[in-house]
Amino acid sequence: MRFTRSESTVIRSVSALELVALLPELTELFRETVNSGSPLGFLAPITHAAARDYWISLIRELEAGSRILLVASGDNIVVGSGQLELSQRPNSPHRAELQKLFVDRASRGQGIGRSLVRALHDAARENGRTLIRLSTRHGEPAEAFYKSLGYKEVGVIPGWTIDRTGERYDHVELYQELARDTGDQG
Fold it and tell me: 3-class SS at 51?
């Protein structure tokens, strides 16, 4: 298990068993994030049960080692999280997808998101992954955030997701090649 410290924030890898213990905190933080405008693949308002079921659905992948879950905590309270889905295909053992990165609204602007991405990059390298891909809404703050970290745009997919009213949202596909040492390119 790896720990990273950033001022008063600790970022650590979470096992399937630890996820079960963190379910209440992660469920509430996830609900707050989705219901305040960051859909993360869900439609707002997300219920407690749907958010909890999402986290439970990750247990098998965590046990299999095909997913890495990191949690950021400050004062023993979960303030953020991020994931890597490790490709299991024979022709892509070098790549991973960054997913579900979010930080508590009250904790934003303190570098926690950047620390989570750096820790996810470190975890990717430790697992032989040097190509990271992600998708986010086009024109939203997350796009600028990832680009500031060296992610490059592949392209925009028009109308990739919708909200409850049927409004369509464009998404941008981004990637980053990681250096094989401890520093990122870009």
Answer: helix
